[in-house]
Design a protein that fits this description.
alpha+beta, two-stranded parallel ribbon, six-stranded antiparallel β-sheet
Length: 150
C-alpha cells in the first residue's frame, strides 16, 4: 500500500489515516555490526552471535535505533509527494522499543498521519510509525516522527 500526493499541503487532509504498509525488511547481522561500529554500541546482545544464542532472546537483536533509522526508507516506500523542494527531519515526539528485532527477522512498518500543520516554512507533518516483526505479539518500535516539507 502506498500513497501519492500532488503537494505537501495535501497531507493536512490525511490526519488519522494510514498512508502505507511496507514490504518486509530484514536487518542482517552484517547491518547490525556496521551500526554497532558507527555508534560504538557493541553490546553483546547485538554483536556476539554465540553468546547471544544463549542469551534472553535466543540470538542477536538489532539496535532499537537501527530499527528507527529505517524511517527515511519506510517513508520513501509508502509516500510520494510531488512539488517538494526539501523534506527535513524535524524531530521525534515519542519513541518506544517494546520488543526486540532478532537478526534476520522480517520487519514491516505501518505509517499513519497523526498530525499536519501548514507553517510559514512548509508543512510540518507528524507520522505515526509502527514497526512490527511478523508473528510477534508486540511492536518492535513505535515512533512519532516529525518531517518538515518545503
Amino acid at each position: 500500500m502506498s500513497t501519492h500526493l500532488a503537494e505537501p499541503a495535501d497531507l493536512v487532509g490525511l490526519i488519522g489515516q494510514t498512508v502505507g504498509i511496507t514490504e518486509p525488511y530484514y536487518l542482517t547481522q552484517s547491518q547490525i555490526n556496521r551500526f554497532a561500529d558507527a555508534t560504538g554500541d557493541h553490546q553483546w546482545i547485538h554483536t556476539d552471535v554465540e553468546r547471544a544464542a544463549q542469551g534472553p532472546f535466543g540470538g542477536t537483536i538489532a539496535h532499537g535505533y537501527l530499527t528507527l533509522a529505517l524511517t527515511p526508507l519506510v517513508l520513501a516506500e509508502v509516500l510520494t509527494i510531488d512539488n517538494v523542494t526539501a523534506a527535513l527531519n524535524y524531530g521525534l515526539n515519542r519513541v518506544r522499543f517494546p520488543a526486540p528485532v532478532l537478526a534476520g527477522s522480517p520487519v514491516r512498518a505501518t505509517v499513519a498521519v497523526t498530525g499536519a500543520e501548514q507553517k510559514p516554512g512548509g508543512v510540518e507533518e507528524v507520522f505515526g510509525l509502527t514497526f512490527t516483526v511478523d508473528g510477534a505479539e508486540r511492536p518492535a518500535c513505535i515512533a512519532d516522527v516529525v518531517v518538515l516539507y518545503r
